[in-house]
Amino acid sequence: MDDRQLLRYSRHLLLEDLGVEGQQKLLAAHALIVGAGGLGSPVALYLASAGIGRLTLVDDDAVDLTNLQRQIMHTEARIGQPKIESARQAIAALNPDVSVRAIARRADLNLLDELLADADIALDCSDNFATRQALNRASVRRRKPLVSGAAIGFDGQLTVYDPRVSDSPCYACVFPPTTAVEEVRCATMGVFAPLVGVIGSLQAAEALKLLAGIGTALTGRLLMVDTRCTEFTEVRLRRQPGCPVCGSGADEE
Fold first, then answer.
1. Quick check: is 246 catalytic?
2. pTM, to two decimals
3. Which CATH number fits domain 3-236: 3.90.1150.10, 3.30.300.20, 3.30.750.24, 3.40.50.720?
C-alpha cells in the first residue's frame, strides 16, 4: 500500500483482526456481483469503499424513476442509463482505484461460470429464481463462496453457501431447482427502502470477512430479518446428500 492507501484505509488497519494483512487481501480480491439494484447498490458501494481491487457487475436493466426509492447507486440524472454504467460512475466517484468491469447482459450459467472462474467470491443480488440457480451451479462448479441475499416487502434473508466447506449446503439444497416458485416482484409487492440496505450491507460484511479471512461466516445458517419489528431469526441449514447440484444426485457435466 502507498501512503494514500494507508490513510484511506486507516480505520481498517486499526482493527486487530483485519490490519495491514487483511487490507492487502481485500486490495487483491475480485468480487462478482450479480444485480445492480436494491441489494447490489449497498454491496457494490461498501465493497468499493472497503478497497476491493476488482468488481465485476452483471445486470441487464436500466435505471428507472421507481428504482430511486431504494437503489442508492443511481440518481435522477442517470435515469435511462444501463444500471451497470450508473454503478460504474457511482463507484468511480467513491473510490477511483477500484477496477470495475460492467456487463450489460442477462446472467446465464455459461456467463456466470466463465466470470466466476476469475473471481474470488460471488454475491447474489439478483431478483429471480433462474439466475440464483445458475449462479449457485457456477459457485459449486468453481468452488467459490456465494453470499446470497433476498428482500421483499419488510422481510429479508441472508446466508453464505461455501463449497469449500465439506458440510456446507448449496442454494439448491435449500431451494431445489425442481420446486415450482412463484416469482415475487418489487413492482407488485413493494419493498421497504432500508431493508435492502440492511441485507446488502450484511452481504458486503460477509464477503469482506471471507476475503480477508476473519471472523465466522454465515455458512450453514440462514439469517431472516423482519424490519416491521426489527427482529432477526437464525435457522440452521443442512446439506442434502441427494442434492442435484452439490450432492450424490448431482448432474454429470
1. no
2. 0.94
3. 3.40.50.720
